[in-house]
Amino acid sequence: MSKILKLEGLSRAFGAVKVADQLNYELSQGEALGVIGPNGAGKTSMFNLITGTLAADSGKVHFDGRDVTAQSAAARSRMGIARSFQVPQPFTHMTVFENAMIAATQAAGLSGRAAETLCLDVLEQTGLMDKANTPAGSLTLLNRKRLEMTRALCAKPKLLLLDEIAGGLTEAECHSLVQTIKDVHATGVSIIWIEHVVHALLAVVSRLVVIDFGRKIAEGDPREVMDSREVKEIYLGIDADA
Ligand SMILES: Nc1ncnc2c1ncn2[C@@H]1O[C@H](COP(=O)(O)OP(=O)(O)OP(=O)(O)O)[C@@H](O)[C@H]1O
C-alpha cells in the first residue's frame, strides 16, 4: 500500500531537551495511527514538525510521495496536511460557519459557492449544522472540539492530525466524537491521533506508536503495544523485568 507520510530520522532539540530524537515511522494511505506517550514526551512537537510550524534539526518528512522537509507550513497545508489543536483556537467572535469558511477559502483555496458547499458538507459530517450561526466563543467544549475538526476538514486534508481531541469530554460526548472520527476515517482520510483517552483511541486506530523523550519506543498492534513492557514501565512506573 502506498505511503502518505514517512518520517526519516526526524530530530529536534530545544537546548538539552530532545523533543524528537531520530523519529522514524510510516503511515499508509487511509490508515489511522494512534500516538501515546507521557506529558512532555514530544507528541505535539512531532505534529509541529509534520505541519512545518517547527523546523527539524535533521531528518526528513515525506508527504504524498514528496520530500516536504524544506516546505513552509502554508505549502504543506495546501498539499493536504491539516490539524486540530489541543486547546481549541477558533475565532471566538465569528460564527461556526464563518470559522469554517476561513479554512475553506484560505487553506483549501476555494471561493464562493464551492467554499460554502464544502463547509455545509463538513458541518453535516461533524454534527455542527444546527450551530452554524452560533458564535464560536459560546460553544460547549464538545462543540469546540467538533469545530476544531470542522476547520481541519474544511482544508480538504489527505492527512488529518488530531491532538488530544477527546480530552475533558464526558463518556457520552467522547463516544459521539469517536463516531464522528470513524465517519471521517471511512471517507478515506489518513489520520494520526495523539490521545491520552486510550479507550477512545483504540476504538479507531489500527496501529499505535509510543513516544517518550522524543523517541519512538514501541510500535505495532494497539493491544499488543498496550500490553508491552515499554508501556507498562512508562505508565505504571514499574520495571517489567523485575
Ligand atoms: N518552543 C519551545 N521551546 C522550548 N521548549 C519547548 C518548546 N515547545 C515544546 N517544548 C518542550 O518540549 C517538550 C515536549 O513538548 P510537547 O508539547 O511536544 O510534549 P507532548 O508530548 O505533546 O506533551 P503533552 O502530552 O503534555 O501535550 C516539553 O518539555 C516542552 O516544554
Automatic annotation (TrEMBL):
Gene3D superfamilies in the cross-refs: P-loop containing nucleotide triphosphate hydrolases
Alphabetical list of InterPro entries matching this protein: AAA+_ATPase, ABC_AA/LPS_Transport, ABC_transporter-like_ATP-bd, BCA_ABC_TP_C, P-loop_NTPase
GO aspect biological process, one term: D-alanine transmembrane transport
Keyword Transmembrane part of the UniProt annotation: no
Protein name per the record: Amino acid/amide ABC transporter ATP-binding protein 1 (HAAT family)
Highest rank taxon of the organism: Bacteria
GO cellular component, one term: plasma membrane
One Pfam family matching this protein: ABC_tran
UniProt keywords, alphabetically: ATP-binding, Nucleotide-binding, Transport
